């Protein structure tokens, strides 16, 4: 099964391949080196439909420009690149691709960052993962002779 960890690794590799540097993996909110890129899941949900597992993720990629008070043109160029690249699937493995939907951009001139948000719907066969019987397979056992 492809998990959120596999998804983030796939997106991180895709960013490195297309932009020439890997995203920052440190969990810090201040004092990071610029320029840099962060990848994080914003929302995650999982449901089951028959024998399929449906994962829905909202992913945010944040790109900080080299300087905190300059770099608007740099961020506009990144937005242009992301727009073009997100029209194509993102490979996670040789046989599993991500198809970004609902792509949105937020450009903040005060802190000079670009946030790219998109939704991913991963539908996978979960027959091999289910270990407990499904509700349809459960049988009622009748108790004989009391409580």
Polypeptide structure, described:
This protein is of the alpha+beta class and 147 residues long. It has one domain: STM4215-like. The protein contains two helices and six strands. A hairpin with a 2-residue loop joins strand 3 and strand 4 (96-98). The termini are far apart. The model has no long low-confidence stretch (mean pLDDT 84).
Labels describing this entry:
single chain; 147 residues; alpha+beta; STM4215-like; 4-stranded antiparallel β-sheet; two-stranded antiparallel sheet; 20% helix
Radius of gyration: 21 Å
CATH architecture: 2-Layer Sandwich
Question: In the residues, how many domains can be counted?
Answer: 1
Q: Which class of secondary structure composition applies to the elements?
A: alpha+beta
Strand content: 35-45%
Number of strand elements: 6
Q: What are the segments in which pLDDT stays under 50 over at least 5 consecutive residues? A: none
The CATH topology name reads STM4215-like
**Span between N and C termini?**
43 Å
SS element count, helices: 2
Q: What's the CATH class label?
A: Alpha Beta
Biggest pleated-sheet summary: 4 strands, antiparallel
Q: Please give the order of strands in the largest beta sheet.
A: 1-2-6-5
Q: How are helices and strands ordered from N to C?
A: HEEHEEEE
Output mean pLDDT: 84
């Amino acid at each position: 099964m492809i998990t959120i960890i596999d998804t983030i690794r796939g997106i991180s590799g895709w960013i490195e391949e297309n932009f020439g540097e890997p995203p920052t993996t440190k969990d810090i909110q201040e004092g990071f080196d610029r320029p840099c890129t962060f990848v994080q899941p914003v929302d995650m949900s999982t449901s089951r439909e028959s024998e399929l597992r449906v994962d829905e993720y909202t992913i945010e990629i944040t790109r900080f420009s080299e300087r905190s008070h300059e770099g608007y043109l740099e961020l506009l160029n990144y937005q242009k690149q992301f727009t073009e690249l997100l029209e194509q699937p993102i490979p996670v493995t040789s046989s599993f691709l991500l198809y970004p939907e609902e792509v949105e951009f937020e450009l903040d001139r005060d802190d000079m960052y670009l946030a790219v948000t998109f939704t991913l719907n991963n539908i996978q066969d979960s027959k091999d993962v289910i270990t407990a019987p499904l509700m349809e397979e459960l049988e009622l056992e009748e108790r004989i002779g009391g409580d």
